[in-house]
Design a protein that fits this description.
Layout (H helix, E strand, L loop, with lengths): L4 E7 L3 H11 L6 E8 L5 H8 L6 E7 L4 H10 L6 E5 L3 E3 L3 H10 L4 E9 L21 E5 H6 L13 H11 L3 E12 L11 H18 L5 H14 L4 H14 L3 H11 L16
Parallel strand pairs: 1-2, 1-4, 2-3, 6-8
Antiparallel strand pairs: 4-7, 5-8, 6-7
Helix pairs in contact: 1-2, 7-9, 7-10
């Protein structure tokens, strides 16, 4: 049976998660083709994958990179490998609950205007505001989402020029809304996600750096001076009023300095993405944290 879904997973030092992830994929009841990319792992990720892949019940293509391409570029590279109608983007530190992908596909097929469907994460879900009747939401996280390829290609995929990781999913979702594609939350589709806050001892330096820097990118591309209070409050919280350590403030200072070189590019793209939309809400992103 021809696959309508390309499963895309980018790995980076993910050896501990490979087996439970692949075991959950084995339970899929619909045909898929999988495309995996290892982003320069230094642990046993590649060896673990090479041993397990021949035993999967679907066709799999495994690519290796000597360097870390980041999430955005990694997913763009994988998306170009296949041609299926849908792309299922999945983090390596996840496990699918029974029927997750099937639920996402059924919802996407119910409306041709749906560009992206997001699964519910457990045991920790990021704050999620959505219309309980339609499932429409401001943005969909890239941890476990089913994307219509036509919509993905319509907006040019992830913007890998500015996003290495974090906030690229918000950027993509808002572009979907502006191109008249719907972003949908599907709470009946569930994944288990081993996020930073439930893994003891995991350092969050990179997360904090890129989340701070990339949140600024969102404002330059989609924001307006009418919403400038969101930006000022974000900066005041990080540098003056918030309960952040001096180490964190120094990290944010480096991230702020780094973001300056991207401002000309982001301002040039505002002409394409500056239209207002009711689901573009900065108060539901990290800018409001």
């Amino acid at each position: 049976m021809t696959s309508r879904i390309d499963v895309l997973i980018v790995f980076h030092n993910s050896a501990n998660f490979v087996q439970p992830l692949l075991e959950s994929l084995r339970s899929l009841s619909i045909p898929v083709t999988a495309y995996f990319l290892d982003n320069g792992s230094k642990d046993a990720t590649c060896e673990t994958l090479a041993t397990a892949l021949p035993h999967l019940p679907f066709q799999t293509y495994f690519h290796r990179s000597l360097s870390n391409n980041g999430f955005a570029r990694g997913m763009n590279l994988l998306a170009r490998q296949g041609a299926s109608e849908f792309l299922f983007l999945l983090n390596p530190d996840t496990e699918l609950e029974q029927g997750c992908l099937e639920e996402l596909l059924a919802r996407a097929e119910s409306d041709a205007a749906i560009g992206i469907c997001e699964a519910r994460q457990t045991p920790r879900e990021h704050p999620k505001t959505y219309d309980a009747k339609t499932g429409e939401t401001s943005w969909c996280t890239g941890a476990a989402v089913l994307i219509r390829r036509k919509a993905f290609e319509d907006v040019g995929g992830f913007d890998e020029r500015v996003f290495f990781m974090y906030c690229e999913d918000v950027d993509l979702s808002w572009k979907f809304w502006l191109r008249h594609w719907k972003c949908i939350y599907v709470p009946d589709a569930v994944i288990r996600h081993y996020t930073q806050d439930i893994l003891p001892g995991k350092r969050r330096t990179l997360e904090n750096y890129f989340t701070f820097r990339n949140s600024l990118f969102l404002f330059y591309r989609f924001g307006s001076w009418k919403e400038k209070d969101v930006l000022w409050n974000f900066l005041l919280s990080r540098f003056l009023l918030g309960h952040y350590s001096w180490r964190s403030r120094i990290l944010y200072a480096f991230a702020f300095a780094d973001h300056i070189r991207y401002i000309p590019y982001l301002l040039r793209t505002r002409d394409v993405w500056c239209e207002r939309h009711p689901w573009i809400r900065f108060n539901e992103t990290s800018l409001a944290d």
